[in-house]
Amino acid sequence: MKILKYIFMLNTVIFYLSAYVYAEEDTEKKGFQSVLDNRFFSIGLFSSSDSIKTTVNIEFGFKIMKYNNFQIKSYTAITGSKIYDDSPQMYQLGLMQKFTFGNNDEYVGKVTISRYGFAFASFGFLSFDADRSGKFLFSSPFYWEVGGGAGFNINVSKHVGIVLEFGGGLHLVPNGKELGYPEKINKAGFGRISVGGRYYF
């Protein structure tokens, strides 16, 4: 479970560094600006669908940097997936770390759209062994994903945004082929669409 500790430490360090480095607001709104605005922190809930599974994500995010009209954000999500497999039913539980890079994401009194690109890595656990005999969920082998894409925040109020993302990447089970896992989850590419919402504090 060392990877969980590293993800937590990474987000903690980024959180404090961003709050410290950008604490002074630039009155002309140019150059580096404070990230501690009314949209510094968000909680999101959204669903994703790709070529092998359907996923529900609970997401926690915060801004890392604001420079002129450019922003970087960090998001950590708890993911739960149902993999398209009938006998037995296979599930995946994991964590996803995502970074977004895009234009200014603020509500200005009317509905606005913020565009961004993103990169992510996901680490998780499968619910059964390759021989389909069942396994303890938090044991190896593990499930990995890496990828990226583009998304939109449709800001409908000061605190609420609708999320729409398109992306893809690579998922794999290390040594999955040798262990006998289905080919579709072993070193396979995927496309993904996600829809949901974020609440900003």
Rg, Å, rounded? 19 Å
- Helix/sheet category: mainly beta
CA-based shape: elongated
Show unreliable segments.
16-28
Number of helices: 2
Secondary structure tally: strands: 9
Largest beta sheet: strand ordering: 2-3-4-5-6-7-8-9
| Helical content band | 10-25%
Features:
12% helix, elongated, 55% strand
Describe this structure in words.
With 201 residues, the protein is mainly beta. It contains 2 helices and 9 strands. It has helices spanning 2-21, 176-179, and strands at residues 32-33, 41-50, 53-67, 70-83, 90-103, 112-126, 142-155, 160-172, 188-200. Strands 2-3-4-5-6-7-8-9 form an 8-stranded antiparallel β-barrel. It is elongated. It starts with a helix and ends with a strand. 24% of the residues are buried. The model is unreliable at 16-28 (pLDDT under 50).
Topology:
Elements: H1 2-21, E1 32-33, E2 41-50, E3 53-67, E4 70-83, E5 90-103, E6 112-126, E7 142-155, E8 160-172, H2 176-179, E9 188-200
Antiparallel strand pairs: 1-3, 2-3, 2-9, 3-4, 4-5, 5-6, 6-7, 7-8, 8-9
Offer a quick outline of the entry.
By secondary structure, this protein is mostly beta strands.
